[in-house]
Amino acid sequence: MMKMFVGFLLAGVVLALLVPALHGRGVALEGWMVWGVMALMIAVCISPDLYQRYRNRERKQ
Amino acid sequence: MRRLGLVGVLLMAVGMMTGTALADQGLAGLPGYKALVTPDHRLSYSLATNEFTFTRVTTPQSGETEITIGGAGPESALVIRFGGPNGLTIERGGRMVVVRRDEDSSEALRVLTGGRAVTAFRARVGAYERQLANDAVAVSDSVSPFAYSVLLTAAFVGELAGDPNSLARTRDLIRHRIAAKMRAVAWQQRDCVTEYERALLVNDDRNTQCMQSADNLDSVFARAAERLLCGAEFLAGAISAETQFVSCCALKLY
Q1: What is the ipTM of this complex?
Q2: Chain A contacts of B243, Cβ < 8 Å?
Q3: CA–CA dist B56, B79 (Å, integer)
Q4: Would you say B234 and B207 are in contact if contact means Cβ atoms under 8 Å apart?
Q5: Tell me: the pLDDT tens digits for B93-144?
Q6: What per-residue confidence (pLDDT) applies to B200?
Q7: What is the pLDDT of residues B163-215, one digit of tens each?
Q8: Cβ of A15 under 8 Å from any chain B Cβ?
Q9: How is residue B53 annotated by DSSP?
Q10: H/E stretch holding B34
Q11: Closest to A28 (Cα-Cα) out of B9, B195, B135
Q12: Single pTM value for the model
């Protein structure tokens, strides 16, 4: 849960850096871009943990 | 689980019954007004009171329409037909007037469109029109398209009866109401993505200004500290904008 929140915060920062640059090039922000970045950043933050859990379960078996 | 299912089914049944009852009540402010599709796929609108019976039947394919206004007494019904091969015809008690461009039939029409039933119909719809104009809050907006058609029909009858401003007046009322509704919708509409983008751009501008003022400081240490504070402010602004975007999207779901 904590890592998901960190991913959400990271997405905010990434978008804050990305959007003015895109706006300067005439690219308007779309809803899917925002949700996509959020989902990606949350995935980036929680995927190592999930992978670790998967590996541990395999080892136990 | 079974209980939950049973309660759900009961609630659905109650909901469906309430919906039917509401549909049966007709328009708010104009009780008895009914709109239905006939078995031969024609649209029928009717309004009945003790003083008059109004029926308007339209064939969607051809646009042929017949308006009938009858009374309870011995007075014969007024029948108006248009959209058909004969153009606009007005009939009452065996007398028929066909409205043609090159003929002035206004006097004959005035005689035909008089009578108790027609006057009662115009008075009833006129009262509803005034209600719409003066006390819009008390009248439901969700069924307005039906309301507009009955208003226009009464206005058309008024025009035939010799009131030259009848249709224009009703048209103005409808136009004002639609414009007001569209203004309200535009006011309520929120584009979450655009607002988010705007917030991020403002945040970026603020950060640029903050960095510039930090760079203008004389002390190197103070400059570094100020730049750090600018970064923190930028971060806080970005996260606040993101949170607002998520809550805006969540609010739009309701």
Answers
A1: 0.72
A2: 12
A3: 10
A4: yes
A5: 888 888 887 788 888 888 888 889 999 999 999 988 888 887 655 555 554 5
A6: 87
A7: 888 888 888 888 777 767 666 655 555 678 888 888 888 888 888 888 888 88
A8: yes
A9: E
A10: strand B34-37
A11: B195
A12: 0.51
CA distance B53 to B35: 14
Q: Are B78 and B69 in contact (CB under 8 A)?
A: yes
| Residue B245 touches partner A, C-beta closer than 8 Å | yes
Per DSSP, what are the bridge partners of residue B51? none
Structure tokens at A41: 């950043």
Q: Measured between CB atoms, which of A8, A16, A31 is closest to B200?
A: A16
What CA–CA distances, in Å, run from B196 to A21, A30, A34, B232?
A: 15, 10, 9, 19
Beta bridge partners of B26: B31
**Helical spans, DSSP H, in B135-191:** 144-160, 166-188
**B46 burial level (CB within 10 Å; 0-12, 13-18, 19+):** middle
DSSP B164: T
